[in-house]
Amino acid sequence: MNLKIYNSLSGEKEIFKPIHENSVGMYVCGPTVYSNVHLGNVRTFMSFDFIYRSLVHLGYKVRYVRNITDAGHLTDDGDVDNDRFVKQSRLEKLEPMEIVQKYTVDFHKVLEVFNLLPPTIEPTATGHILEQIELTQKLIDKGFAYESNGSVYFDVLEYNKRGLNYGELSHRNIEELFANTRNLDGQNEKKNAPDFALWKAASPAHIMRWNSPWGEGFPGWHLECTAMSTKYLGEKFDIHGGGMDLKFPHHECEVAQGKACNGTEPVNYWMHANMLTMNGQRMSKSTGNYILPMELVSGSNDFFEKPFHPSVVRFNFMQAHYRSVLDISNEAMVASEKGFQRLMEAMKILKNFEFKEVDNSPVNHQSPTINLKSWKEKCYTALNDDFNSPILIAHLFEAVNFIFKLKDGKETISENDLAELKTLMNDFVFDVLGLQNIEENNNAKLDQTLQVLIDLRNQARKSKNFDLSDQIRDRLLAEGIELKDGREGTSYSIS
Ligand code: AMP
Ligand code: ZN
């Protein structure tokens, strides 16, 4: 079965042909770590987590690079005073690198809560300043860039004069770009308005600065991704992803930098994930129309009537195709929760269901409502059709209905089919969609929590604080949890 991917470059679904057989190089633009990620950011990263999981499941060996932007992403491309990190560090009275550390840790924690797999390489922009300086020099040497007042700009007009096509990814016309570029700081340093910064001279107040052949400065945001993707995936690689809003100018500039440096399209398949909206408007920090992921999970917000488990949120996101806009709402989350619970119940039934020889009662002689071979094919067709998670989920629910009938003795299944159904459902639900069984997770959490209490009780006993150690034992007993001290240590039983 051929995998088809919608390629933003051609505007069509194309059959996926990796550069190296069975291997995929995939780069996804990571977060700019100057504040907490909002739920919209999580949606994009989850879309690519699902794509990554699907590729692995389909048998590809994936090198998955997702960067951390920890320098150079200005709120306005030309405005040096709008360095996000410097601004936030002033606000929080922290060093810029403390800001970077704080929000990188937050980002990782949030993604773990939503069960996103880590990328195979997670490079940082500040760890690749040398590579960015080298690329800038290469672009100057090739005549695609020029220095001006200690900054270096990419010459868009020169690029187009050589028959290359700035605007090919975002399908924009160069004349419009010239007409529509706003007059920003640094504009008078540029030859033409659409030129973009590869390297920016640092003003005396700018704390994040590095030495370069053009004086002290810092790299441009677009160049960071070209430097890191080229270093780890090569001059040409298979998939580049990011949110829809990054297509222009960020990805357009990446295409131009790559083509100017190496003479070839840097990326074969450009994939763009669509936006999460709330109240019908794009979720965004700057407009205030956002919710933090942990606010949704803990319930501490005014928008949702109750807290929702991260797996329910994940299920809700997976019910929309990655290229569709998704509007988050209380009603949709409540509906997703019901669907998710039914799916998990079916998974539990399936796990514990043991094969029984078919008896001769007439009901058991009906042919099953599910033909495993064709059902499996439908699931893979959905996955291979540009990673269509909502259609895949619809097919999984056919199996869910079948599993409930199986439990009630209204369906039969052969021993081999039962084994295969178990494997396929586990693969799709847990490995590919990345959902987690809340009950099993809670059991693990309870165990960890009790171990903490046992440790604290042992510490109290050691320091002869018997009041406290007895209190821990008695209060747990009152909750039906008995601690038993033995030679191997303390164990517990729950009545
Ligand atoms: P940033 O940290 O601003 O570079 O954003 C990180 C990722 O989140 C990028 O891929 C953005 O395209 C994506 N993103 C930003 N807002 C939204 C949103 N409302 N819905 C989905 N993705 C978003
Ligand atoms: Zn990027």
Automatic annotation (TrEMBL):
It comes from Kaistella jeonii. GO terms for biological process: cysteinyl-tRNA aminoacylation. It is found in: Cytoplasm. It comes from the Bacteria. Residues 378-444 form the Cysteinyl-tRNA synthetase class Ia DALR domain. A motif ('KMSKS' region) lies at residues 282-286. This is Cysteine--tRNA ligase. GO terms for molecular function: ATP binding; cysteine-tRNA ligase activity; zinc ion binding. InterPro entries: Cys-tRNA-ligase, Cys-tRNA-synt_Ia_DALR, Cys-tRNA/MSH_ligase, Rossmann-like_a/b/a_fold, tRNA-synt_1_cat_dom, tRNAsynth_Ia_anticodon-bd. Belongs to the class-I aminoacyl-tRNA synthetase family. Binds 1 zinc ion per subunit. Signal peptide: none annotated.
